[in-house]
Design goal:
Helix content is 61%, strand content 12%. By secondary structure, it is of the alpha+beta class. The protein starts with a helix and ends in a 7-residue tail after the last helix.
Length: 506
């Protein structure tokens, strides 16, 4: 009953941890990945994972995948920022200015007459005639209009302005007709599409690396098993030789030769074991998990060898329809075509609307409550008609057209190279499939030959040298068989990346 409760709780946690929607086709359920990683961190025995689970972990934890997702997010922000140009741009401003030296204004009439009206030329101010007012900010110097005015500091001019100037306001502007801006917004949308395709390319590359690392672990484990079997056979033969030597049926030279065979087999076992550890580290690095995490891989190369014939024929009609490089070049080509149009649209007139409202105050003191604020506002249309720019716009069009033709040539060359790569991968797969079946027959023959020679050696009809030769032939056949499967799987992984076959957990 207790086990049943625990099982129900675990399954509930797994189900609740599944996301409502995947961010990408092939993204693993986060709950399953987290459970595997948590178990691998604390488990004493290695946690065995399948290739599909390894891909799920990598799609969740791999750094390059996370960076690619962040790049999609960044281009999304850039696209939204570009669309903001269609909305009114509203700004508020405020300024304070302290006058150090006032401006001086000069008038082309006899200042003495003004002085006479104001004080009869004696320097004492009087009221001006009806209808004549002194504007705010204009100061009449004492004694203006007298004979001393010409020798004053102002040279007979009027000081204009006040010591403190305050201003604040709001301005707004919005484009009404701007074909070049509209085209740039479409290009910004293509940047997001290109970032999504680059993220897909990053995932495809990561999937290929995980597969190759996973197959590398299987190959190293297979080699370890072969060399371990060689060592065990050498030990068993040494024990048989020791019994014969004790019975004085073989010479001491035969015994020494058997000891040497055992000693030569030991380094191969250690090297093969180290290769397994290094291959697992490489897999963990590609997955993006801690190198000390206790995980192992499931299956064997022989499992994949049984379906090689089906795999090679399932890719006979491989095309570049989903190749990520071709898709990126297609997006870039479309972008440059739109760029040419955008440069041409620079010759089209543009229309914008603008609004401004501001208030100003000029004073000689800091009595804010007594300030008199003067408003100023306007609204207007701005029409910009391009006429001549020294050939700048024309050369910009020629430059964009040149880039467009470059990408077209690059697309053609890339397509040719990718088609060659597809044929190369298919040829490699076919060659290794044939090598596998040939090695399979060789392993069966070598195993039978070794068994016969081992029995012959026991009954005294064969020599140790012949037995060692049979063991060497068996070892080479087994390693050749494993290497053929590994090469086939590597070529298949590269082919799937080339044709853009996504990893989709169905």
């Amino acid at each position: 009953m207790k086990k049943l409760v625990v099982t129900v709780v675990v399954m509930a946690c797994v189900l609740l941890s599944f996301p409502a929607s995947a961010q990408y086709k092939g993204d693993a359920p986060k709950g399953e990945v987290e459970l595997i990683l948590e178990e691998a961190e604390s488990a004493e025995e290695p946690v065995v994972i399948t290739l599909e689970q390894a891909l799920e972990i990598a799609l969740s934890e791999n750094i390059s995948v996370k960076v690619a997702d962040m790049e999609i997010e960044r281009t999304g922000y850039a696209k939204k920022g570009a669309y903001a140009a269609l909305w009114p741009q509203i700004d508020a401003s405020g300024a304070y200015q302290r006058t150090i030296k006032k401006q001086v204004m000069y008038m082309d009439f006899d200042m003495s007459s003004l002085g006479g009206m104001m004080g009869g030329g004696d320097g004492e101010g009087t009221e001006l005639p009806d209808g004549v007012e002194i504007p705010d900010g204009v100061e009449i110097p004492d004694g203006m209009g007298s004979a001393d005015t010409e020798t004053s500091d102002n040279g007979g001019g009027l000081e204009v302005g006040r010591w403190n100037t305050w201003s604040t306001g709001v301005s707004a502007a919005m484009p009404l007709v701007n074909a070049q801006l509209w085209k740039s917004l479409k290009i910004s949308g293509m940047d997001v599409e290109l970032a999504v395709e680059k993220a897909r390319a990053s995932r495809l590359d990561m999937v290929t690396q995980v597969k190759q690392a996973y197959y590398g672990v299987l190959l190293s484990k297979q080699a370890f098993d072969v060399y371990k079997q060689v060592y065990e056979n050498a030990v068993r033969n040494f024990e048989e030789t020791q019994r014969k030597y004790d019975a004085e049926k073989v010479s001491e030279m035969e015994l020494l030769r058997s000891k040497t065979t055992v000693a030569n087999a030991i380094p191969n076992v250690y090297n093969a074991e180290s290769s397994v550890i290094l291959a697992l580290w490489q897999l963990k690095a590609v997955l993006g998990v801690d190198l000390d995490m206790n995980i192992d891989v499931a299956g064997a190369l022989e499992d994949y060898g049984q379906q090689m014939f089906y795999d090679i024929h399932s890719h006979d009609s491989a095309t570049l329809d989903r190749n990520t490089t071709m898709k990126q070049l297609a997006i870039q080509t479309e972008q440059l075509a739109e760029m040419v149009k955008m440069q041409k649209f620079a010759n089209i007139p543009s229309l914008a609307v603008a609004f401004n409202y501001s208030i100003n105050a000029m004073t000689n003191d800091f009595k804010f409550s007594e300030y008199r604020w003067t408003p100023y506002s306007y609204v207007g249309l701005s029409l910009n008609i391009p006429i001549f720019a020294g050939g700048k716009r024309y050369n910009a069009i020629r430059q964009s057209e040149n880039q467009y033709r470059q990408v077209q040539l690059q697309t053609l060359n890339t397509e040719r190279q990718l088609k060659i790569a597809i044929r190369q991968h298919l040829t490699t797969m076919e060659t290794n499939m044939k090598s596998y079946y040939a090695a399979q027959d060789a392993v069966a023959s070598a195993q039978k030959g070794y068994d016969i020679m081992e029995m012959s050696y026991k009954v005294g009809r064969g020599t140790l040298i012949e037995l060692n030769d049979a063991q060497l032939a068996l070892t080479q056949a087994q390693l050749a068989q494993s290497q053929a499967v590994y090469n086939f799987l590597n070529a298949k992984a590269q082919l799937e990346q080339t044709i853009g076959q996504d990893f989709i957990a169905e």
